[in-house]
Amino acid sequence: MIIQNDQELKTYQKGVDLAMKILLQLNHSLKPGILPIDIDQLAFKLCDQHHVKPAFFGTGGKHANYQHAACISVNDTAVHGIPSRTEVFKIGDIVKIDFGIIYQGFYTDFCVTVGLKQLTPAQTKLIQVAKKAVRASIEQAIPGNTTGHIGNVIHAVAKKSGFDVLKQYTGHGIGKTLHDSPVIPAHGTPGQGELLQPGMVICLEAQLVTASDQVEVSEDGWSVKTVDHGPVAMFEYMVVVQDQPLVLNPTFDWPIIV
Predict the structure, then answer these.
(1) Structural domain includes residue 257
(2) How far is CA 240 from CA 1, 10, 175, 185, 252, in A?
(3) CATH label of the domain that carries residue 152
(4) How confident is the model over 6-38, as pLDDT tens digits?
(5) What is the pTM of this model?
(6) Pairing relation of β-strands 70-74 and 215-217?
(7) What is the tens place of the pLDDT at every residue in 80-90?
(8) Domain for residue 258, yes or no?
(9) Which of 166, 178, 196, 257 is the most exposed place for a label (fewest CB within 10 A)?
(10) Range of the domain at 118
């Protein structure tokens, strides 16, 4: 969507601020021995307390609608991880929490990755570079640029550090729906792709992998895993396209190891 006026932006920012507050509480609850489904149930509880709906619940899938408040993807699960009811978090896990709410008709959607200490240097580097790659692309979210400008930066930062990005999953526009135009791949060529317009609200995201960028959907119909079972780190930021891009969810200082 395209922001039409200051009041619309203020309302949207309030929604993002609330979603950040909830996601931070979810992050603080992460620790070895806890089940992912416990985090998901906490997300439902917090949404209920704040009188908002989780953005992902009821989203249509290949086999069935999504029945959870958050996507909790661990280690080699790249995206859309169904929160496990049986496998607890362990020391050394790389956990991606993707979460959003619907606030006064506006959708929010962003993701952070955290590692449960102790992590290896290689694991830590993967998370650090994933955050760096997506953050570096934010300055490209200006009117007149294209989605290729954004993807080119993400991919370049990842490759420079020896990583790759998933090609099958992309960033996207957002607003009155969870997924809006434009589609924003985490790779590309400046000047190619869709044109960025002033006031456009977009989600910049990337999933970084250590080796193969090939993935497959698990039997649950949602959880997407790397075929080589390599770890994945993901970050996602909501940005308003303008001459000085506005980051709606500045989670840059959140810890990546807990």
Answers:
(1) no
(2) 10, 12, 11, 17, 16
(3) 3.90.230.10
(4) 999 999 999 999 999 999 999 999 999 999 999
(5) 0.96
(6) unpaired
(7) 999 999 999 99
(8) no
(9) 257
(10) 6-247
- Give every strand in the sheet of 53-54, ordered side by side: 53-54, 101-103, 106-107
Residue 24 lies in a domain: yes
In angstroms, the CA 157 to CA 208 distance is 10
Tens-binned pLDDT, residue by residue, of the chain (258 aa): 999 999 999 999 999 999 999 999 999 999 999 999 999 999 999 999 999 999 999 998 666 799 999 999 999 999 999 999 999 999 999 999 999 999 999 999 999 999 999 999 999 999 999 999 999 999 999 999 999 999 999 999 999 999 999 999 999 999 999 999 999 999 999 999 999 999 999 999 999 999 999 999 999 999 999 999 999 999 999 999 999 999 999 999 999 999
Distance of CA 146 to the CA centre of its chain: 20
Whether the CB-CB separation of 113 and 121 falls below 8 Å is answered with: no
For residue 45, what are the contacts with CB-CB under 8 A and spacing of at least 6? none
Please answer whether residues 49 and 58 qualify as being in contact, where contact means their C-beta atoms are separated by less than 8 angstroms.
no
Secondary structure (H, E, C), 37-66: HHHHHHHHHHHHHCCCEECCCCCCCCCCCC
Query: How far, in Å, are 37, 55, 66, 200, 255 from residue 251 at the CA level?
Result: 23, 19, 26, 20, 9
Closest listed residue to residue 196, CA positions, set 206, 183, 179:
183
Q: Is residue 255 part of a domain?
A: no
Domain count, the chain: 1
